[in-house]
C-alpha cells in the first residue's frame, strides 16, 4: 500500500474542508437558495421581480421564502425572517422593537448598523444617518405577511453596492399577485418578565390584512397592519455604590436591589424605565403595469406610524410605603442624589413615509436596463420627555421636545445589463444616495402636550454618495467562471451645524473619492461540488451623525473630529458547496477574512490631556472565521427537514494608538461562536412542527473588554435559546399556529434585556 506524504495529507484535508461548503455562483438568472425549503433546490429569481440584487452573484447567498417563514418562524416583525440564517443576529429586544433592532453579521456587531444594507422592493430601509443601536433599519415598512422572499448577500463582493455592504445586503421581496387574493391574520403574544424587582406580564396583539389582484397588464397590492405591544423594562436606573456618601443625610428608603455592573463594580438598581407601550400602524400600496411584454413599471407607497408611551417604576419606598422618584435618598447608610430625569417617562409620535418607483426591462436579450428611485421621509418625528420628576411629570410640567421632522434619505439608480455573447454578462450603473439629518431640541412648559418654546440645542448635516460601478461575469467554459468589477465613489458631507441655546456653529465641507475593486472565481469540480473564492474592498464613509458630533463651548465646537477617516475593509472568502443525497441536501463551508483599517468607534483618546471620548478611528481590526451551513429535506424519515449553521469568528483589534489598552482585545459585540439549528417535521399536509435553537457566545461591549460581568444591565452575554412552533391547516382557507419563543426562559442581555419566555398564537385566513 502506498504511504501518504504529509503534502498529500494536507491537500486531502483541504479538499475535505472545502467540500463542506461554498455556494455555487448564481448562474443563468439569479439563483435563490432557501435553506428551509421543503427541498434543497435552487430557484430561479424572475427578472421582473423588484429585487435589488444583481443578475450575477459573486459571493455567498442565503435566503428563505414565504412558505418556510410561515412554517418555521413565530414571525411578528420583518426582521424575524432572518432569525435562523447563518451568521446573522438582529438585536430585537421585544416584539415591535422599532428603534434598536440592529443587524449584526460575520465581522460586524450590533453596534455597527452602518456596516450592512437592508432593502425592500428596491427601497433602502437601512438608516445610514448614523452608526449604532439608535440607527436601526426601518423594519416597520415591511410586515411578515407580505414577504415573498428574503435574500442575504454576504460581504462586499458585488460592485453594485456601496461600502456599507461590507457585512451583508438583505433584500426583501414582497408579494405581487398573479390573481385575486386576500389574507387576514390575527396574532397575540404574551411574556412573563422577571428581572431585578420587576415581575409582570407584558402582552400585545397584531392584526394584518392584505388584498391584491392582477388584471391583464395591471396588478395591485394593499397591505395594512396594526401592532399594539407592551415591552418589558429596557433600562434599569442605577447608582454605583462608590458614588454614595457615607452619611445619615437623605430620605431613608428601601427596595434598592444590590448588583454588579459590567465592570464588576457594586451598584444599586433603583428603578425600571423605558417600558414602551407602542401602537404601530403600517399601510402599503404597490402598483405595477407591464408597459410592453418586456418593460414593467412599478410604484410603492408606504406609511408607518408609531404612537409610543414609555412608563417607569421606582423600586424605592419611603417609610410610609410611597414610591420615591427623585431627591436625596439614603440607601443602607449612604446618601445618593436621584435627578428628576433618572426615573422618567417619555413619548414618541412618529410618521414616516416612503416612495419607490422603478421602470425595468426584461428582454433577456443583448441589453436590459432599469431606472429606480426611492424616498424615505421622517414626515413627523417627535420625542417628548420631562425634565421634572415623576409624579409631577405625570400631569405635564417642564420638559423637552426633540423634533426630527425633515430627516430622511433618497436614492437614484440607473442600471444596465449588456450580454454581448453567451460568455459575458456585463452589469454597470450609476447610483446617487443622499442623506439629510435634522434634529431640533426645544424647551416646553408641558412635556405631554405643550408646544415647543426656546431652543435648547440643534444638530444638522447632509451627505451624498455618487457611484459608478461595473462588473463582468465571464463564463470561461462549462466549469470555470469569474466576475471582475469595480466601484468608484464620490462622497460629500456638507451643511453640518451644531447649536446650543444661543449659538450655531458650522462644520467644514468634506469631499473624498474612493475606488473599490472586486473579484471572484468559481470552479464546478463536478455536478455536486462547486469551489469559489471572492475578494473585495469596501469603503464605509462616516455618517452624518458620526462626523457632525460634539458640543458648543465658548464659541467653539469641542469633542469632535472633523477629519474622521472612512473605514476601509479588504474582505475575502473561500468557499465550497456540496450537493447531498441527489439534491435533497446542501453542505457549505466558507472561510472568511477581513482586514479593516480606521474602524469607527466611540473611544477615549489617551494621547491628549485631558482625555477626549468621542467617535474616533481605530487603526486596525483583523477577523478570521469559518462558517458551515447545512440543509436537507426528508432526513431519516419523510417530512423531517433540517437546517443548521455554525460560525466561528476570531475578531481582534491589532492596532489602536489612541487607546492602547484595546490592542489584542476582541472586537466589541462580535462573539467567537454563533450557531443555529432548525428541525421541522411535517406530520401530514395539515400539521407541521418546528424546533429552533439559537446560540451566541460571549461578547464584549467595550473596546478594552473590561466589561467582564456579562449577565447584567449594560452587559453583553452569551445565550442558548430554543423556540417552538406548531402550525395546523384547518382547511383550505383557515390556518392556526401556536409557538413559544425562548422556551427555556433564558435571561440574556445585549446592553438591554432580551425577551424572556413568550407565547405566540396566530389565526390566519387566506382567500
From TrEMBL:
Residues 1-26 form the signal peptide. PROSITE patterns: TONB_DEPENDENT_REC_3. Residues 299-743 form the TonB-dependent receptor-like beta-barrel domain. SUPFAM superfamilies: Porins (SSF56935). It is found in: Cell outer membrane. Keywords: Cell outer membrane, Ion transport, Membrane, Receptor, Signal, TonB box, Transmembrane, Transmembrane beta strand, Transport. It is a multi-pass membrane protein. Residues 56-169 form the TonB-dependent receptor plug domain. Belongs to the TonB-dependent receptor family. This is TonB-dependent receptor. It comes from Undibacterium cyanobacteriorum.
